Amino acid sequence: MKGENFLFGRYKFIEAIKTALEGYPPRDERCKSANWIGVHKALMAIKDVEGMLRSLDPQYYDILMKYIYRGLSTGNRTTCDQCLKIHEKLTEKAGFGCILRSLADTVNTV
């Protein structure tokens, strides 16, 4: 994620998430790992989930849902709690199709 450190340094977590989503799918495993680290860090810092979702282009909802499921797969309680909170709001905004599309796409993983 180019500029990730700058964005985190300025507490612009929503912009960091947008940057990662715009760079999807990552080119290789190293980029995929770097994107996950950045998205995870930003997701954990988000306080206004609804505001974040309003600021995102709907075309990125499915990709965000993939990152949410990756966060849930960590088993870390704090990460899972935050991901479930975001999952609920994202599902309300994007509908159940977002869940199905993110789970069905096994080619472009995060």
From TrEMBL:
Gene Ontology, cellular component aspect: Arp2/3 protein complex; cell projection
The protein's assembly and partners: Component of the Arp2/3 complex composed of ARP2, ARP3, ARPC1/p41-ARC, ARPC2/p34-ARC, ARPC3/p21-ARC, ARPC4/p20-ARC and ARPC5/p16-ARC.
Protein's UniProt name: Actin-related protein 2/3 complex subunit 5
Family per record: Belongs to the ARPC5 family.
InterPro entries: ARPC5, ARPC5_sf
Source domain of life: Eukaryota
Main location: other
Gene3D superfamilies given in the database record: Actin-related protein 2/3 complex subunit 5 (1.25.40.190)
GO biological process, one term: regulation of actin filament polymerization
Function per UniProt: Functions as component of the Arp2/3 complex which is involved in regulation of actin polymerization and together with an activating nucleation-promoting factor (NPF) mediates the formation of branched actin networks. Arp2/3 complex plays a critical role in the control of cell morphogenesis via the modulation of cell polarity development. Functions as a component of the Arp2/3 complex which is involved in regulation of actin polymerization and together with an activating nucleation-promoting factor (NPF) mediates the formation of branched actin networks. Arp2/3 complex plays a critical role in the control of cell morphogenesis via the modulation of cell polarity development.
Protein's UniProt keywords contain Glycosyltransferase: no
Keyword field: Cell projection, Cytoplasm, Cytoskeleton
Localization terms from the record: Cell projection; Cytoplasm, Cytoskeleton
